[in-house]
Design a protein that fits this description.
4-stranded antiparallel sheet; Alpha-Beta Plaits; two-stranded antiparallel sheet
């Protein structure tokens, strides 16, 4: 029987939890540069690519070889700005989580193949290794309700804030600072989730005045755990 979340059925205008970890649970982010490179790839794939401007630069007779080579590399890269939004992310030492919204049914597979292949090539080249970096094909699960969307975003950000605890001194790279207005990453789109917290709203049987209180002041109850168990790895990390 196929493992949970390995059979992927993609739909237009769907929300998905995408995740994967290192083969044999190995470390895939060894130092800060590795996190930075992975994030730079996300940025490149998700920000608009102005092909007209890039091609105009190529026509400049005074362009140097290095600049020309970089422009050609950018032009060859896939771009998903018009078909995919990244709502939340978290990078952990041996795995990552992405919460995305796609507007075209074929986007996710192309996006994840591009991202994981490119990062694997970088990692193997840097650390002089060969073979797969990730544990098989990435996992994907469809988010089917607003409640799931909210709980999943909290789960992802709690991972960054101390592996489901609130050891806030343990901070992994994540989209949480975007949600708190601390950093402006244009390629992260938190507004849809934040819109639920502009006024006090009922979620289940509790009230939350802000997204921060929803994440940091709320312990997982049975309903929340049941929702997350449907949207996460076969075994908790």
């Amino acid at each position: 029987m196929p493992a949970k979340n390995r059979i992927k059925e993609y739909i237009k205008d769907g929300y998905y939890h995408l995740y994967n970890r290192g083969v044999d649970k190995r470390i895939i982010f060894t130092e800060q540069q590795d996190y930075a490179v992975f994030l730079s790839y996300l940025k490149t794939y998700l920000l608009p690519k102005n092909e007209k401007e890039l091609r105009e630069k190529l026509d400049d007779p005074n362009i140097d070889y290095k600049t020309r080579d970089n422009i050609l590399k950018i032009l060859r890269l896939n771009n998903f700005n018009e078909t995919l939004d990244l709502l939340a992310y978290c990078l952990m030492p041996n795995h990552f989580h992405l919460l995305i919204h796609q507007t075209w049914a074929e986007t996710i597979d192309k996006f994840m193949n591009s991202l994981c292949t490119r990062y694997s090539m970088y990692f193997n080249r840097k650390y002089k290794r060969v073979g797969p970096l990730f544990q098989g094909v990435y996992k994907a699960v469809l988010v089917e309700s607003e409640e799931q969307l909210l709980h999943l975003s909290r789960y992802i950000h709690l991972q960054a804030l101390g592996l489901q605890g609130l050891a806030l001194q343990t901070k992994q790279p994540s989209s949480y600072p975007n949600y708190l207005g601390q950093i402006p990453q244009e390629w992260v789109k938190p507004n849809q989730i934040l819109s639920f917290f502009k006024t006090a709203q009922r979620r289940g049987y509790r009230y939350f005045l802000s997204y921060q209180s929803f994440v940091e002041d709320h312990k997982e109850e049975e309903v929340g755990l049941a929702i997350i168990n449907k949207l996460t790895l076969e075994q908790r990390n």
